[in-house]
Amino acid sequence: VQLVESGGGLVQPGGSLRLSCAASGFTFSAYGMSWYRQAPGKERELVIGLSSPDGTITIAESVKGRFTISRDNSKNTVYLQMNILKPEDTAVYYCSNGFQWGQGTQVTVSP
Hints:
The protein is mainly beta. 0% of the residues lie in helices and 49% in strands. Strand 4 and strand 5 (45-50) form a beta hairpin.
């Protein structure tokens, strides 16, 4: 099983980023996928999750209206679209299939 995140970087407040998580080694379409984040000195927290097969979305209040999750089962990839980014969104972002984590990708929101 492998989950590889990409797309992180430095962005100004108000900007956007799209993270990708490429999955392999398991039946991707059968699993719900989630994005978590961990800021320095804080616990890892759920940002947004997309269950399978019903497509139920679970989302943290702090990102409602700004972040969305989507998946492309033909590419075994899940995406996190982040808009109107704020400095408090700065963290390492991880994807998960519920039993495995990726290595994370750093997102830094700063002027």
